[in-house]
Amino acid sequence: MKTLAIAAMLLTATSCQRQVQVGSSSSPSASAEVRSAAGATVGTLSLLTTSAGVRITGTLTGLTAGAHGIHLHSVGRCDGPEFTTAGGHLNPANAKHGLENPAGPHAGDLPNITVNASGSAQVDMTTPRTMISELLDADGAAIVVHAAVDDQRTDPGGNSGARVACGIVR
User: Fold this and answer.
1) Helix (H, G, I), strand (E, B), or coil: what is residue 72?
2) How many structural domains compose the chain?
3) CA distance linking residue 71 with residue 16, whole number of Å
4) Residue 166, SS3 per DSSP
5) Does residue 96 contact residue 107 with C-beta atoms inside 8 Å?
6) 84: buried, middle or exposed (CB in 10 Å: 19+, 13-18, 0-12)?
7) pLDDT by residue (tens digit) across 119-147?
8) Do the beta carbons of residue 86 and residue 74 sit within 8 Å?
9) Which of 15-24, 91-100, 103-112, 114-123 has the lowest mean pLDDT?
């Protein structure tokens, strides 16, 4: 009888513990391992849901110094060397490109990143125009780094040049 009572208490405790874990609030998150056209890893970016939107953080290395456009693209594919399989910018509202465009921006438009002389960039930006669930939909999404600075106005890509690195959001 004691064994049965102990087993029932353990089962109840386990059940309560499971409810606490399932009911706990954790923000949806994802990440993207970003690779160069040659296939080398240039860094991993973390994506986390915050009250302000999706926050993207991490360090990218092995890039050319200067400002680079970076965008969320509509398809979770990064076939090199040109990464065209990532599709266009995430743009479910059919807006125009650019954070400074009065008819924009795309949901995937992000501020430029600045790469220092040693080829490293700290990424820390938040976009209120998308959610992790949109990025992890049936066809996924990718983060693409471009060769040049994004002018934040010109449709469809801000004159940001070739796609030099890409990571699938997972």
Assistant:
1) strand
2) 1
3) 43
4) strand
5) no
6) middle
7) 999 999 999 999 999 999 999 999 999 99
8) yes
9) 15-24
